Structure formats: C-alpha cells, structure tokens
Amino acid sequence: MPKQKSHRASAKRFSFTKSGKVKRACAFKAHILTKKSTKRTRKLRKGSYASDTQAKMIRKLLPYK
Question: Which residues on adjacent β-strands are paired with residue 48?
Fold first, then answer.
C-alpha cells in the first residue's frame, strides 16, 4: 500500500497547534484595502482557527501533520 500524499496547497496554508487545532490566516487582506478601515486591516493581520467542521476536512487533506 503506497503512502498518501498530503495536499500541498493546504499544507502551505494551514498549520496545527499542539492541542490539535487548525491555525489559518484571515481572509480579505489581499487587495482593495483602501476602503477597509485601518482597524479592520489591523485585525486581519492576526491568524485565526478553523471551525470544527473545516478542521475535519483539513485533517483529511493533511494526513501526516
């Protein structure tokens, strides 16, 4: 039985904490930043955690993490 491959795009975007939560970056920070408030863009710099439902899918994509 060959090894499973991890989904490379997901591997670059997500990481795991020691407790098993999935860390992710916040969305809506790539472009059109002029109309977004400074407070909002500053908040988007911080990372966030994926929801339980999303984390379940991400774990399937990254079997060896």
Answer: 24
Tens digit of each residue's pLDDT (9 = 90 or more) over 2-39 = 999 999 999 999 999 999 999 999 999 999 999 999 99
CA distances from 10 to 22, 42, 48, 62 (A): 11, 24, 15, 7
Query: What pTM was estimated for this model as a whole?
Result: 0.82
**Conformation bin of residue 46: beta by default, left when phi > 0, alpha when psi is -120 to 50:** beta
Residue 15: CB partners within 8 Å, gap ≥ 6?
22, 23, 65
